[in-house]
Predict the 3D structure of the following.
Amino acid sequence: MNKGDMLLVNYTIVALEEGRERVVDTTIESIAREAGIYDPNRTYREATIVYGKSPLLPAVEEALAEMSVGERREIIAPPEKAYGERREDLVVRVPLKQLQRLNIRPRVGEEIEIGGRRGVISKITERFAYIDMNHPLAGKTLKITLEIMKKVETIEDKARILAARMLGLHYASVGAEYDGQSKTLKIILPQGVLGLTDLEARLSAIAADIYEVLEPKKLLIIIEVEYPEKVEKREEASQPSTQQ
């Protein structure tokens, strides 16, 4: 693979824990259901990876460099090539009064955000809560199955996929046109996106991704609005009918 290649990749991540295997993440719905981790709010589909630009685990990046489209590979990722070793200095002690001021009622196992960082409450004492800021998979060896489903070739297809993923759409519902001479990229979105409450933020994210990955000189994002056909009203007779 070359830097900048856009790939659609299926993956399954399994944590190896004391002689047992636990599926912790997957892009495949049937595996998620079988493992008991199915999330009804998630759309299960291939991950979009821009090789050399998307943040990847070191073990995954090394494997993808050697793989080809259609290939399936299983790798073992030790902590140093996955989420790193656990660090005790990332377990922070927070006064319960501080959490109360933030309207947080701490419970062991609850995930909270403190100072812009997320962590899990690992212990509560009379005066303090201990927040573990380590990644949940830190210190674990992972078995990762990768399969490259497709390499996206054209700028138009890359733009459609980037926009669709950010908006929760199927890429077939997004249009794209590219003028190579002026390096102008046009993205056409369906009317349904107008119902998104955070549309402005999503459009900004789409623009940032496209400028970083595809590097057009100009980007136009158009929302196609279709109006219903006008129904012509029949003119009513100015005088009531006298027909008997």
Summary: The chain is about 20% helix and 35% strand.
